[in-house]
Design goal:
Helix content: 40-55%
Oligomer: single chain
Structural class: alpha+beta
Amino acid sequence: MDKDKNEFTGEENIRCPDEAPEEQKGVTEEERRWSVKSPPPPRVPRCVFAALALILAAAFAGGGWWYYRANVLPEKYYLRASALFKAEEYARAEELYQKIMEIKPERRDLFYHIGFCREKMGDLPGAMEYYERHLKSADGDVKAMARLGWLYMERGDFERALKWLKEAGKHNNDEPDIWRMTAEAAEKAGDGGEAAAALSRLAELEKEPEKIMECGRRLIRLGAYRRALTAYALAAEAAPEDKAPIHGMNAARAMLGLPTDRRYLITPGTALGAVRLGAEKAEAKESLGGGSPDSKEFALVGGKSMLAGHPVEIWTYHKGDPEREIRIIFIGGRVSEIETASPLYKTEEGLGLSNFLLAKNAGKLKWRREARGGALLCLAKGGGLTFYALGLTDDGSDAAEKRLRVHHGDVSIDNVDDLPLMRFQSSR
């Protein structure tokens, strides 16, 4: 230790050295002799490393073989089977599909391919079995459903064929072949409703006018006249220059009791045949061929209507012909109402003088009201058309005298007291 003197006492101060002596650093020789040394680790035999290497090599080889067998080999078989199928070697193709099934049974399309091979080889029962097994795991496969339906048709089991074809149509609504087979199966199964529905859908999907008209002809044979009318309308749209679809439409319209001649069509609130409400005299005359009316009457509107007292002019065409006679009522120089007693005129729905009193057409009428003089008024739904009847039969299904009038709104220009439906005051 370093020593120095205290300046106050004169005694020596003892201080610790700044660094320890060299001999006091580290481990002493004695401590070094008493220290315990760790024994060296034992040596691993080389055979252990060799065994591990063999295990890894075997695992690698086994894994590679497993992968090859589970993935590569089935694909090789599949490619070969596809080539054989295209070459029409169906038996050899099926053998490979069966091998794939043994290796990879979870593959979903194998049953379908085997079924197809069986079908091509003429084994229809076997093909149907495999198609049905395929559909248990792939219940939305339209191709399998269609093929199964076709095979049932080949065997004459039209009800089962119809079941599968209808199911295929639910999953694919836009395939013409499916609806074509569905219609055929339904017809042969005696299900006219399903056949008509399938033919209607087929008519919508077909592009060629002749094929569309064929749907219409089959629909007429089934008695589905409304659907046939729609089919022929589609054919007319596809071939506007062809008159055949028009003839088909007229045939369907005739079966439905609808007017087949547009000249006899009632458009409530708009027109009777070619004569339109609101037309001027020249236009009305032209719509009836340009000829002059058989008679003209001039008077004032009577009754209690809002137009009572207005001057009115009435033109009558085909006077005395109960099948064609019409009266055009002008107010202010324009067609205000059109009247006829002809049973030829009907609406698009087939409502006319011949059937408006029948119970089956009650739903087409807005109301029935009795008027003075024992007359009956019936307004068609939607307005614009009123039927008049006088002298009803006992059952109310017909009348001695009947007329109709096309007009605006729900009310004609005059209350009905007698026929011919209007009361006029003398204009003199």
